[in-house]
Amino acid sequence: MRFSSAILSIALLATSAFGAPTNQKRCRAKASSSVLVSTSTAILAASSTDVHTTFSASISTEAASTSEVHTTAAASTSQVVSTATASTSKVASTEAASTLKIATTAAASTSKAATTAAASTKASTHTSAPAATSTSSSSSSGIKRGLSYNDVSLTKGFSSSKVSWAYNWFSQPGGTLASGVNYFPMLWGADSGHTSTWMADAKAAIAKGSTHLLFLNEPDLSSQSNVDPTTAAQLWMTYMQPFKGQATLVGPAITNGGAPLGTAWLDQFMDACNKLGCQVDAVAGHIYGSASDPDYYKTYITSLGTRYGKPVLMTEIGVSDTSTSAADQAALIDELVPFLDGLDSVSHYAWFMAAANLLVDADGSLNAVGAAYENAA
């Protein structure tokens, strides 16, 4: 999800089919909880800053379902925990670990588009290489690792020898990425602020070498792009299907929540798409969990490839507990990066995110977590 200025949302989190870790759930801003990153509540049209909010999905168990209401409030984060009653498996369904991701509106998107155009950044991101049409499960460079960002200047600490792609929950890059880093534009939501420029932006991105088009950020959450599966399939036919054969078309980025969120939502989307004749080349997912439970990440990510039989892009990976130490996050990265690189079904992945106090410092230099992500092998 790509966001500008400040609107914090309220998300209803259902419980996940995998069970939940006893001390873990993905956090979103909420009063009286720990804050990783403060947010702006400025009027959207007055800001061109891109920020991204993602909400965590719900956590559930197979034997007993526990639903929890996850309410967000400005500039704080909260934690919801659901305990599995008949299973020892743990599932962490979480919101983005940062309050940098704020809900986008059409006005903000229009403002950002104008700013980006004025700065002539659309033409500066990539060389005009021919568009790739392959839907294979590995990037053309062989490097799966990527970046999510709002401020392109905060990606400068990462080397293109370690990361091969990047996205910013928007359809224009907002600046110049390092040479060799492929930009993946995204149609974040169904509002006119995103759809009005999408066709032209996607066409321009493909002409400059973009190999993948991303579609809908967390449509299974009412606080994010909030699109029902049937409508999403119709949007696909209008805004994605015309690019068939020109780029890898990636499905909606779902949360790791339980029904009706997560894979339950995506199942309905795929059914509706099949009836309309959509070509969905790859699937996308987000996952937040406990740094102490890497097996949960491995099981969930593997299940996406098995379930859909398509390449998987994990466009957000992170920890849900914002108080997790840098050392514990680095240890999780050291465990997961080799796993992701070796898992054939995963074509691309991005740790959340290239922003101050997450992967980098305020000046864009890598912090301990960012250095772990850059150097993990």
The low-confidence parts are 1-137
What number is the mean pLDDT? 74
The fourth-level CATH homologous superfamily of the domain at 126-375 is Glycosidases
Please summarize the sheet with the most strands.
9 strands, parallel
Radius of gyration: 18 Å
As a percent range, the share of strand residues is: 15-25%
Report the CATH architecture of the domain at 126-375: Alpha-Beta Barrel
Structural class by SSE content: alpha/beta
Query: What is the CATH first-level class name of the domain at 126-375?
Result: Alpha Beta
> What's the helix count?
7
State the shape. Answer: globular
The helix/strand order is EEEEHEEEEHEHEHEHEHEH
Number of strands: 13
Helix and strand topology:
Blueprint: E1 3-4, E2 11-13, E3 50-51, E4 68-70, H1 106-118, E5 145-149, E6 165-167, E7 182-183, E8 186-187, H2 192-207, E9 212-217, H3 229-239, E10 248-254, H4 262-276, E11 282-289, H5 294-308, E12 312-319, H6 326-342, E13 346-354, H7 368-375
Parallel strand pairs: 5-6, 5-13, 6-7, 8-9, 9-10, 10-11, 11-12, 12-13
Antiparallel strand pairs: 1-3, 2-4
Outline of this structure?
With 377 residues, this protein is of the alpha/beta class. Helices cover 25% and strands 16% of the residues.
Note the main attributes of this structure.
single chain, 377 residues, alpha/beta, TIM Barrel, nine-stranded parallel sheet, 16% strand, disordered N terminus, GH, hydrolase activity, ASL1, Glycosyl hydrolase catalytic core-domain-containing protein, signal
